[in-house]
Amino acid sequence: MTAMADGWQLPARLAALGFFGVIVQVAAVSQISILGVSVDLAPLMVAAVGLLAGSLPGAIFGFAVGLFVDLALVQTLGVTSLLFIVIGYAAGRLRELRDPAHGLVPVMVGAVATAISTVGFALMQFLLGIEAPVSWLLLRQVVIAILLGALFALPVHALVRRVVSGALPDDPRRRRRRAYTTGGLSPLSRPSEGR
């Protein structure tokens, strides 16, 4: 029974994180403008989930969050989902292939995630034939958005880590707890010598 409960713990936490994260983004954060650009927390959340949970959970979380963003903002369905799948999968593959341990990796990944989201969305809108003004002002806004994404990447990563801690399969606290419940030795007990 506990193995089944443990299996649903990460998806439940990610679903709550995605739901409340998009609601906060759409209702509050998007209303605040810094240098003419509002911070987009959704790609930062997706990148953080990819870095913490891996490529498959990152891609699935990216799809769900992107679809929810498209529905909440009443825009072309699937555009944001496609971009967020790429962000979540790429961040997860970085974790799986390189196992980045440096404390500033979330900053770099957040900047890249914001760049993929911002430039990719503009490119997808252009390819879909939706007219948008292309000028130096757009380039300025993209650069400011990437800088803001890098700035907010660490706090978002810390928040996501706090939400999913204990539910990740390779979490040290979870491994320790499982060792005790499956008959592993306690670190306080020593095997007797000479028996």
Blueprint (SSEs and pairs):
Layout: H1 2-27, H2 42-53, H3 55-73, H4 79-98, H5 105-127, H6 136-164, H7 172-181
Helix pairs in contact: 1-3, 2-3, 2-4, 2-5, 2-6, 3-4, 4-5, 5-6
Primary descriptors:
mainly alpha; Arp2/3 complex 21 kDa subunit ARPC3; Cell_shape_determining_MreD; 195 residues; 0% strand; transmembrane; 71% helix; 7 helices
What does this structure look like?
It is found in: Cell membrane. The chain is an all-alpha fold. It has one domain (2-161): Orthogonal Bundle (Arp2/3 complex 21 kDa subunit ARPC3), CATH 1.10.1760. Helices cover 71% and strands 0% of the residues. It has helices at residues 2-27, 42-53, 55-73, 79-98, 105-127, 136-164, 172-181. α3 runs antiparallel to α4 and α4 (79-98) runs antiparallel to α5. The longest helix has 29 residues, at 136-164. It is globular and about 50 Å long. The two termini are 37 Å apart. Mean pLDDT is 83; it is low at 172-180.
How many H/I helical runs? 7
Q: Give me the Rg, rounded.
A: 20 Å
Shape: globular
CATH C-level category: Mainly Alpha
Could you tell me the number of beta strands? Answer: 0
Percent of residues in β-strands = under 5%
Sheet having the most strands: none
Poorly predicted sequence stretches spanning 5 or more consecutive residues? 172-180
Overall number of domains = 1
Category by helix and strand content = mainly alpha
- The helix content, as a percent range, equals over 70%
CATH fold field value: Arp2/3 complex 21 kDa subunit ARPC3
The string of secondary-structure elements, in order, is HHHHHHH
Round the mean pLDDT to the nearest integer and report it: 83
Family: Belongs to the MreD family.
InterPro entries: Cell_shape_determining_MreD
Transmembrane segments: 12-37, 44-65, 71-92, 104-128, 134-154
Organism: Conexibacter arvalis
